[in-house]
């Protein structure tokens, strides 16, 4: 039982969309079992089961709230199936799922946002998925900078994605525009320096 999510008796006020989005991220990406939710192999949960499980665990949601969160999320983190009976996170899972995304040739350059404290490890090891199942890359610097800024001062790395693809690395393009790949060796990264970007 998630006591910290419970509402006072009779309270039915709409929650802030950000709070609903974080709740969905927790249970559609990372910990569905906590509320007894079952994801299929593709990461889909039945919409009615999500609503019932959320209500049973102290976080009642209406279908309208769920639809608004999916439609209005600026990063398009979630999607309904075509018939609306299922919902899933578009990427970012730490539980094992197969999103069924086809391999897709990337643009010549992609970008990754991080912070200075991770640069030494990245120079040594490249980009690894860590708890996630893939490394997340952005199509433009601005998006990558916003991602990096979540943890502090943003540093944007340039990924030679086209060259990686030519040399056999596989990329996938998620429904919300995020590029995914298994890892990025350091030799394909350009690090910012005082005189512009430079290779390690």
UniProtKB/TrEMBL annotation:
Transmembrane segments: none annotated. Pfam families: PTS_2-RNA. The keyword Transferase applies. One of its GO terms (biological process) is tRNA splicing, via endonucleolytic cleavage and ligation. One of its GO terms (molecular function) is tRNA 2'-phosphotransferase activity. Its EC number is 2.7.1.-. It comes from the Bacteria. Removes the 2'-phosphate from RNA via an intermediate in which the phosphate is ADP-ribosylated by NAD followed by a presumed transesterification to release the RNA and generate ADP-ribose 1''-2''-cyclic phosphate (APPR>P). May function as an ADP-ribosylase. Belongs to the KptA/TPT1 family. This is Probable RNA 2'-phosphotransferase. It comes from Streptomyces reniochalinae. The gene is kptA.
